[in-house]
Amino acid sequence: MSPILLAFLLGLSQGLLHAVGPDHCAAMATLGTLGGGRRRAAIATAFRFAFGHAAMLGGIATVCLLAGVGLSETFERWAEIFGGAVLVALAVAALLFPNSMGHGHPHLPGHAHEPHEHVHTVSTAAGALMAVSGVRSLLLALPPLLVGGSMSLAAWTYLPGFALGILIGMGAVGLLFAEGLTRLNTRLTAWVQRVVAVGSGALGLFWIGSRLTGG
After folding, report:
1. 164-to-54, 55, 70 alpha-carbon distances in Å
2. What is the pTM of this model?
3. What share of the chain is helix, strand, coil (3-state, %, to 5)?
């Protein structure tokens, strides 16, 4: 097997594993319930989250590779704390803004409910923000592939493989979650939304606490 194909497949497998991390699943579940149980909305939310996540990871990793710089453990720890804060923010928004259940993002009182373009940006932005904590791990996986320097083709094929793995993995999670939601009535969907939001917030708080205490 050629080094290029091997690097791509390695990136694909690592991207699939990265996609189904508990924090990612919690965020996608919280955002997915905001579509009111609609299959198409839940799947689209997962793909937008995955796109933002993959784009941010790939962008920062590419800049670091080109600049020849690495990221410290301290950066990773604070980035994970930031990711936990994003989870908590998503949970709070889902619990305190009932309008978000209708069309996918919170509104202040008196804000109109008509369709508008920024409905699609919430999940993409959340995916991008939660990607920051995974950049260092991605960079640590690349050095064995950097045979011949940072411009090695094998290293660069790892990155699109990793991104594709994220898209496939998170898309599959979104599909499974959407299929489950479509089997619930409106009342049960509302309860599931609340339970998922509480669970997401609890995971975010645990994530923050464990990183602050060095866990």
Report:
1. 8, 11, 23
2. 0.79
3. 80, 0, 20
Are 183 and 37 contacting, i.e. CB atoms less than 8 angstroms apart?
no
Angle formed at CA 46 by CA 166 and CA 163, multiple of 5 degrees: 15
CA gap 51, 74 in Å, rounded: 26
Please answer whether residues 23 and 207 qualify as being in contact, where contact means their C-beta atoms are separated by less than 8 angstroms.
Answer: yes
Q: How far, CA to CA in Å, does 162 sit from each of 55, 88, 147? A: 11, 27, 19
Q: Mean pLDDT in the chain? A: 79
- pLDDT single digits (tens) 111-151: 444 444 444 678 899 999 999 988 888 877 765 555 444 44
Contact 189, 181 (CB under 8 A): yes
Q: What is the dihedral of CA 174, 179, 181, 182, to 10 degrees?
A: 140
Residue 94 neighbours by CB under 8 Å, 6+ apart = 30, 33, 34, 100, 101, 193, 194, 196, 197, 200
Q: How far apart are CA 214 and CA 210, in angstroms?
A: 6
- Residue 113: helix, strand or coil by DSSP? coil
Q: Per the structure block, which two tokens stand in for 160?
A: 């699109």
Q: Is 1 helix (H, G, I), strand (E, B) or coil?
A: coil
